[in-house]
Amino acid sequence: MSQTVDQDAAPGTEQNDGPWLSTLIRSLTSQQLSPLGELLPAFPPEELQRNTTGLSSEAALRQAHAFYDNVLDAARRAGLVLDRSTRALDFGFGWGRISRVFMERISLANIHGLDVDPAFVEITRDLTRSDKFELCAPFPPTKYEDSSFDIIYLYSVFSHLSEEACQSWMREFARILRPGGVVAFTTRHDSFFDFCEWAKGQGASSSPYVQALGQLFPDLSQVREAYRAGRFIHASSQGVGGGGPRDESFYGETWIPEQYARTGFDDQFEFVSGYFDGTKYDQACFALKRK
């Protein structure tokens, strides 16, 4: 994409979506500036977008923006003001989809990222022209100093990590977040058990992932009961592991119920809020504040 910067909205888009979402959507076909005057990143090929998020182009942006709206609400509830100088960490950034949405308020110069996949590091550094998106190991520690960040956000990361990995990373987030800082993450929602049930009934002609998902739990009713009792649910197999650096020893499918989000990390965090609207994105979102 090598067009001139275009700040004029298409007729009607701002009224329907708001100026920032409209700008994000226009950035698919023309270069756009954030409200802070920064050039928005380019996009990777649509196939790569679909392979990582299940969506591409406008649908992928709308989903990311819906998550951003929830995080903004949580930050407000926690008394955290997001502005140009806010120090942010995008954990599991993929191709940088979520961070571009946060550029409405936070300067790209203050957005850092960590991901286990070296291919994503190369792609996102190229798209954003920023060297602050870096490689990390599957488990902490990180190189960052204590209280380095004001906010940490994770989209579709704790929907896959084991309990050991989640707990390890939350302890590290507590170290690198300043007191009063916010961590917001998504995880599988109760309704994803319905998809697992559906997957059980699919034949050999379905995708390997669907077949593996259908075989993940011998007794889904028992697993649902444990989830609704507040237990952390994680399961994996070769078919649902992420491949590459995301192996099934720590990566699979994960459900964190609200009760666990409220109490499972309460030695260092206090629960702020929870969100779910399946019409906007299909994961549950929880936000916690560093004590």
TrEMBL record:
Keywords: Methyltransferase, Transferase
CDD domains: AdoMet_MTases (cd02440)
GO biological process, any: methylation
Entry annotated with the keyword Acyltransferase: no
Record's protein name: Class I SAM-dependent methyltransferase
A molecular function GO annotation: methyltransferase activity
Residue ranges annotated for the Methyltransferase type domain, each copy included: 89-185
Any Pfam family matching the protein: Methyltransf_11
Gene3D superfamilies: Vaccinia Virus protein VP39
Species of provenance: Lysobacter niastensis
InterPro entries with a match to the protein in the record: Methyltransf_11, Methyltransf_Superfamily, SAM-dependent_MTases_sf
